[in-house]
């Protein structure tokens, strides 16, 4: 069985995802990339996984340093997402333009919706990408910050309706 790559991409564009910037540092050099292929792996012990392209600096730096930060972008940080997704990005300028802070050598975004500081525990290489499994050392979760989403090729805000319809049933959300 085979699937057309364009059909696959079209289907995956419908999968709404939180937007992150994965950052890392190697010998004083910072790098980062926008990523939506990030998810929790386990809560005990706390682990997450992030998928990165093997050709990118983020993979090279994270595989050598064995450290990364996953910065979950807040709704007001769409420009940060756009900047770090650019192929011709000037990293020095990008890290100077936003509220980046040093966390034991890792660049973390000061006003992100959440930040996960990780040790890269394992890497699984598959064709053009690697799955980085991060053991979470620290989590920063500020007070209320709505996350930035990406769906159908566009950045979006989460919608929190009072009622959610599921299989012709209406469920009342409780606070």
From TrEMBL:
Example of a GO MF term: riboflavin reductase (NADPH) activity
Protein name as catalogued: Flavin reductase (NADH)/flavin reductase
Keywords: Oxidoreductase
Flavin reductase like domain span: 12-157
Pfam families (UniProt xref): Flavin_Reduct
Signal peptide: none
